[in-house]
Amino acid sequence: MTSPAPTLRPGDQLAGTACTTRVVVVRVPADRAPALTCGGTPMIPTTGAPAVPASGAEPVTLLGKRYVDAADTLEVLCTSAGAGQLACDGVPMTLKAAKPLPASD
């Protein structure tokens, strides 16, 4: 039996257990408790995360970038790049696009 996913709150700092990826939760959906994973393994609070040595692999999760789920309800900010791909409820998260600036006529 697996334990239920921890309730995410804005400001939570999470770390991947299989790579060096670390994120800060920016926005969470009010109606559900999503399961956030990195590289196929659940992310855990950074306070309990073991130090994972950096691999020579090219980072998939990029430092300083924001990632959102398919419904655009969960948003995280990457604070440490890593080789694992972020996923929400088993669906890969995507890089959040920048908002276009208004035209200055």
Overview of this protein structure:
This protein is an all-beta fold and 105 residues long. It has one domain. The strands form two sheets. A six-stranded antiparallel sheet has the order 5-1-2-7-6-10, with no helix packed on it. A four-stranded antiparallel sheet has the order 4-3-8-9, with no helix packed on it. A hairpin with a 6-residue loop joins strand 1 and strand 2. The radius of gyration is 14 Å and the shape is globular. It starts with 12 loop residues before the first strand and ends in a 10-residue tail after the last strand. The model has no long low-confidence stretch (mean pLDDT 86).
The biggest beta sheet reads: 6 strands, antiparallel
Number of helices: 0
SSE string, helices as H and strands as E = EEEEEEEEEE
Gross morphology:
globular
CA-based gyration radius: 14 Å
